[in-house]
Specification:
The complex is a heterodimer of chains A (481) and B (605).
Chain A: H1 2-15, H2 18-24, H3 31-34, E1 37-53, E2 77-88, E3 94-105, H4 110-113, E4 120-133, E5 136-148, E6 162-176, E7 179-190, E8 198-204, E9 210-217, E10 220-232, E11 239-252, E12 255-258, E13 265-268, E14 271-284, E15 293-304, E16 327-338, E17 342-354, E18 365-376, E19 382-395, H5 403-406, E20 414-425, E21 435-445, H6 447-451, E22 464-476
Antiparallel strand pairs in A: 1-2, 1-22, 2-3, 3-4, 4-5, 5-6, 6-7, 7-10, 8-9, 10-11, 11-14, 12-13, 14-15, 15-16, 16-17, 17-18, 18-19, 19-20, 20-21, 21-22
Chain B: H1 2-19, E1 45-47, H2 50-53, H3 77-82, H4 84-90, E2 94-96, E3 101-103, E4 106-107, E5 110-111, E6 118-124, H5 131-143, E7 147-152, E8 161-163, E9 173-176, E10 181-182, E11 188-189, E12 193-196, E13 208-211, E14 214-218, E15 221-223, H6 260-265, H7 280-297, E16 301-304, H8 312-328, E17 335-338, H9 345-349, E18 359-360, H10 363-375, H11 381-393, E19 418-420, H12 429-432, H13 435-445, E20 451-455, H14 485-499, H15 501-505, E21 509-512, E22 525-532, E23 535-542, E24 549-550, E25 561-562, E26 570-573, E27 581-583, E28 589-590, E29 593-594, E30 598-604
Parallel strand pairs in B: 1-2, 1-20, 2-7, 7-16, 16-17, 17-18, 19-20
Antiparallel strand pairs in B: 3-6, 4-5, 8-15, 9-12, 10-11, 13-14, 21-22, 22-23, 23-30, 24-29, 25-28, 26-27, 26-30
Classes of the chains: A mainly beta (481), B alpha/beta (605).
């Protein structure tokens, strides 16, 4: 039913296109044209599909012990994006509006599982309006949206701003002499289908049977603001620097829910949190020697509820059952140095996460990863490469399994991955997509990393885990990247 | 571009430096073991059912239902840390907490909140916290000079396997026969036999498999696989060896309790599978496991569960090995006292003989003195009778390397019995008896010899009946009130016990007991002197429910109570606010009157 609804939405978006409307009623000219309104339909997509074995006859699974590990062995995922834009004919000021709908599909593909089914989510469903002038750009949006900035590609991670909310926002862009300044604000809500925010219970119906009564429904309010100032180092903005300031706050009202016995009411206290961070970046575009190169450094600190993310449910809470006292410090780096002969991509972060517990436990940790991928452009289309990554997670307390009964001291879990890649793509560029890859990767786990698997998991006995497979990745026309 | 590369290199160097830093996980190293006890007789133990005492960490509230006394309530080690002030204010000096290891979550709709259903002997119970929290609890207790006693189980594991009697690979409950009598065959009955493969009746040969064709040899055991209830094979892995269990089925109650073989080798009611503690490898594993808990936490003693269900010679191997291993690491004066849940004094005392345990939970005293005398108003002569039997039934010599006094002299089990009024396995005293009877019992408990043990909530007048009603939730029942009369009574007595060394370490010389329980002059009186380093305290308690009584039998043709104090000595009552005084007469006797169900603690003025 849900899928049908989603399909109808997509069909509805497409059907709303004046071009299609024109086809269905060719004799009637859309009224908009009379007033000089144009439209454009765009299909975009991000996707990656892989077929891989772990060389023991099973599915190769990602081997990561940090929150955002190397993506060399990540699972399949795809987004299909549909955009319809409307715009006035005048160049200045020009008014635009549009609708974006993005369907996302998770790993379980029919040709692998044999199940004529998929797990999907509507990751974007929003509309925009905007006014564009040469030196001023104003826009509004409302709906359901992924809302995020720059990523660390090798880790598939958005370290600074990455929100998923129902809400709306605005942006103002100014073309200033050093480069554009863009300020964005946003407000949204979520209400997770989780007893932390939502509970519905069955009660006796008015006459027979039962009715469902919602006993807990508390929304998380998320507000964010972002300012990005670019400093162009040439006339066209092909080279430049940028600085980003980002802030976020989250608020959750008090609520109450019934415990399992259905009689005792448990009060869930109100909670809040904030996040503040910044980014400094450099890019080199155009067609110079390092065209396509860039570097972004990130730093942020989140406190309280915000330390768990906008879709997170706090764990390791304080005695008053709030997230107050939790903290998440992160510094990260994403960089690519691209030349006509070879490309080097780096991704790394260090993160120190503390729950709200007064006392540190295994749920508190610091973690870090460094990943580097290099491709040589043997020809325009054949790009052999390699990736090396090292990740470590240091919990601040031992795992509940008594490690010291068998081992005198527990080392921090680490994973080292060495990978060989044969890539094929259209251009000798680090981010030329689609890109087809043949990958062999070996992940080396230390004893502590192996202990993270439950004893029943056969991977616990595999200090070296293999990945051999083929993967293809693409993106085009996507509003989300 | 070059500048950017330089910045990137700097950044990466910083990250690498962080990544290559110290990688050992903190809190994995064990604390240094220390001896924290001068003399165990100085201590006042407070028994805590961890799940019911205080909820200090809401993150551990898994499967909690405070509406049910057989469900988890959420108490934990952090909760105990949070209530250290309360314990100090009450005046207790040692805590005995519920078993620390991981247990079966639930069996037959009843949770393992009490901690006595082992699944993993070496993993901290996640409902209570993790190992670092347990260590911190011990540290916090030691910082306040409060000792910590862990609860030990070697007798059994939880309900983790069934006997596949009919060999069909699933746990069954079979009923055979109809109970009908067939008159035409001379009144032959079709006997009804009910067999549960979870808990079959004891068979000295070991549980046998059988089908309709007859027996088929020993029944295999099948491990449960219910991860949602943590009913999975036990740990450490050695316990997954079927040979490590007696596999003889459940003790047949009630008569089975009288047969020692059954007591020691049968499964405990409720399907708790008896471990074969006769095997040397099992014994060594148990020594390793229980030494591990102390080595990891620096706790100070063991209360040992179901002692009589394990063969005696196990204890004479286990106890010396534990003492030796801990002493080598710096921990001496380590108390091990056993639970021998039995009213027979000689049975209890059996486990305090040379090379065995330091002490025992004094069940016979609970029944014959606290219940019969203080609860039911029975003759105080019971006290004297039981006291006299003590030297025949219990070990009279100190255990080698066992507990000692502050001078390093060993303390024999006869002087270190753990006295209690009630505990988690019996109905609370107030369930059956009155509050003033409890206060009189507490008066005696905290002045007699040995080591007193107070069950949590006693000071709050909890009155629950048998298990689980006697395991009330403290924090939901206003359990930390420090203004209540019983709380203040205990507080006053613990204070005096700390203040007066004879009450802790002194000899125990009975001066007066009586067979009389009616309206006689001395009915209900028990009096004793306790002397230490030349200082004597005289304690007089009246267990009579209604009458003021005296340490005198003059109305019966006798005299007053002889005491060791010199004639003319005036004794003052330290317990009573009035400071009542009494004088020893020229014959060296004294007549002290005591109101019903109260007592006096007297010292020379």
């Amino acid at each position: 039913m849900k899928k049908l609804w989603l399909c109808l939405v997509v069909i509805g978006v497409v059907a709303a296109s004046p071009a299609l409307a024109e086809e269905s009623e060719p004799e009637t000219e859309p009224p908009g044209w009379e007033r000089g309104i144009g439209s454009e339909f765009r299909f975009g997509s991000y996707g990656r599909v892989r077929a891989a074995t772990d060389l023991t006859g099973g599915t190769a699974r990602p081997v990561n012990i940090v929150s955002f590990g190397s993506r060399i062995d990540e699972r399949s995922y795809a987004e299909l994006e549909f955009q319809q834009r409307f715009f006035t004919a005048e160049d200045s000021p020009r008014f635009e509006s549009g609708v974006v709908a993005t369907l996302a599909f998770s790993d379980e593909l029919f040709h692998y599982t044999g199940d004529f089914d998929s797990r999907m989510a509507l990751r974007n469903l929003y509309a925009t309006v905007g006014w564009h002038q040469p030196a001023l750009d104003i826009g509004l949006w409302a709906g359901s949206r992924m809302y995020r900035g720059d990523d660390i590609y090798l880790l598939d991670f958005w370290p600074l701003d990455n929100l998923n909310t129902l809400g709306g926002g605005a942006h103002v862009g100014l073309d200033l002499p050093p480069g554009p300044l863009v300020v964005r604000i946003h407000g949204g809500v979520n209400r997770l289908s989780n007893p932390y925010q939502y509970q519905a219970v069955e009660v006796p119906g008015l006459q027979f049977g039962t009715e469902e009564v919602v006993t807990l429904d508390r929304q998380r309010f998320v507000l964010s603001g972002r300012a990005e100032q670019q400093l162009w180092l040439d006339d066209g903005g092909r080279r430049g620097l940028k600085a980003v300031l980002y802030g976020e706050s989250q608020h959750l009202p008090e609520g109450s829910r019934l415990l399992d016995d259905g009689f005792v009411e448990e009060v869930l206290p109100s909670d809040s949190g904030w996040l503040f961070g910044g980014q400094f970046g450099f890019w080199e575009g155009g067609d110079g020697l390092f065209a396509g190169s860039f570097a972004n450094a990130f730093a942020r600190y989140a406190s309280g509820l915000a330390a768990y993310g906008d879709l997170g449910v706090p764990f390791g809470v304080a005695l008053d059952e709030t997230a107050q006292g939790a903290g998440d410090l992160l510094i990260g780096l994403s960089a690519t140095a691209d030349t006509p002969w070879a490309g080097l991509t780096l991704g790394s972060y260090f993160r120190n996460f503390r729950t709200a517990r007064e006392v540190e436990s295994h749920e508190d940790y610091w973690e870090s990863i460094l990943a580097a991928r290099v491709h040589g452009y043997v020809t325009d289309h054949i790009h052999p490469g390699a990736e090396v990554s090292y990740q470590v997670r240091r919990p601040m307390g031992p795992l509940p399994e008594a490690p010291s009964y068998e081992r005198p001291q527990m080392q921090a879990p680490t994973v080292t991955k060495l990978s060989l890649i044969q890539a094929f793509s259209l251009e000798p560029r680090a981010y030329s997509r689609p890109q087809l890859r043949l990958i062999y990767s070996a992940a080396f786990l230390n004893e502590s990393a192996l202990q993270l698997y439950r004893p029943e998991d056969p991977r616990r006995d595999r200090p070296v885990q293999h990945y051999l497979g083929v993967m293809v990745e693409w993106w085009f026309n996507s509003a989300s990247y | 571009m070059r500048r950017t590369l330089r910045f990137s290199a700097l950044f990466l160097t910083a990250l690498l430096a962080l990544q290559l830093g110290c990688f050992n996980v903190p809190h994995t190293s064990a604390p240094e073991l220390t001896t924290n006890v001068d003399d165990w007789r100085d201590e006042i133990i407070y028994q805590i059912v961890t799940d019911r005492f205080e909820n200090g960490d809401p993150n551990l509230d898994y499967r909690v239902n405070t509406n049910s006394l057989t469900a988890w309530h959420g108490g934990d080690w952090q909760g105990i840390i949070n209530r250290m002030d309360y314990l100090e204010e009450l005046g207790v000096t040692a805590i005995w907490i519920s078993p620390t290891f991981t247990v079966v979550e639930e069996d037959a709709g009843i949770a393992g909140y009490h901690g006595y259903w082992p699944q993993n002997f070496v993993q901290a119970n996640p409902h209570f916290g993790d190992l670092p929290t347990l260590r911190r609890m011990v540290e916090e207790a030691h910082a306040r000079d409060i000792k910590v006693i862990f609860d030990v189980i070697v007798n059994h594991i939880g309900q983790l396997f069934y006997y596949d009697i009919n060999l069909n690979g699933q746990p069954d409950e079979n009923v055979e026969g109809s109970g009908l009598v067939y008159d035409e065959y001379g009144g032959l009955r079709s006997e009804v036999i009910r067999t549960t493969e979870w808990d079959p009746d004891f068979d000295p040969r070991g549980i046998q498999s059988r089908t309709s064709l007859g027996e088929s040899g020993p029944a295999p055991i099948i491990w449960t696989n219910m991860p949602e209830l943590n009913r999975v094979p036990p740990m450490p892995e050695g316990f997954q060896n079927p040979e490590w269990y007696h596999r003889r089925g459940r003790v047949v109650t009630p008569w089975g309790w009288e047969i020692r073989e059954m007591v020691e080798t049968a499964d405990f009611p409720g399907g708790l599978k008896a471990i074969n503690t006769t095997l040397p490898e099992v014994r060594q594993e148990m020594i390793d496991i229980w030494a591990f808990w102390i080595e990891e936490t620096n706790a100070d003693g063991f209360r040992i569960d179901t002692v009589k269900h394990v063969e005696e010679d196990f204890w004479t191997e286990f106890a010396p090995a534990i003492r030796r291993r801990l002493a080598e690491q710096g921990k001496e004066n380590f108390l091990m006292f056993g639970e021998i849940f039995d009213g027979r004094d000689d049975v209890i005392g059996r486990y305090t003989q040379p090379n065995s345990l330091d002490s025992a939970f004094y069940f016979s005293h609970k029944y014959q003195v606290f219940d019969d005398v203080f609860g039911r108003g029975g003759p105080t002569q019971n006290i004297e009778n039981l006291y006299n039997a003590r030297f025949a039934n219990y070990g009279t010599t100190p255990q080698p390397n066992g507990i000692t006094d502050s001078q390093g002299q060993g303390i024999p089990p006869t002087e270190a019995l753990v006295n209690f009024i009630d505990n988690h396995d019996v109905a609370r005293f107030l369930f059956e008896f009155e509050t003033d009877a409890l206060r009189a019992a507490l008066f005696y408990l905290l002045t007699m010899d040995g080591i007193p043990c107070i069950y949590y909530g006693t000071e709050q007048d909890f009155d629950g009946g048998n298990d689980p009603a006697n395991r009330e939730n403290m924090w939901l029942n206003d359990g930390f009130n420090t203004e209540g009369e019983t709380f203040r009574h205990v507080q006053r007595l613990t204070s005096l016990r700390r203040e007066l060394a004879p009450l802790r370490r002194g000899s125990f010389d009975l001066r007066w007991t009586t067979p009389r329980t009616g309206s006689e002059q001395d009915a209900g009186i028990v009096a004793f002197e306790r002397t230490y380093n030349g200082e004597t305290v005289l304690v007089v308690v009246n267990a009579h429910p209604t009458n003021t009584s005296e340490t005198s039998a003059t109305s019966l043709g006798g005299g007053d109570m002889p005491v060791s104090f010199s004639p003319g000595t005036t004794l003052v009552d330290l317990y009573a606010d009035s400071g009542d005084t009494f004088t020893v007469n020229s014959s060296g006797e004294i007549n002290i009157s005591v109101p019903a169900r109260s007592g006096r603690i007297l010292v020379a003025q």
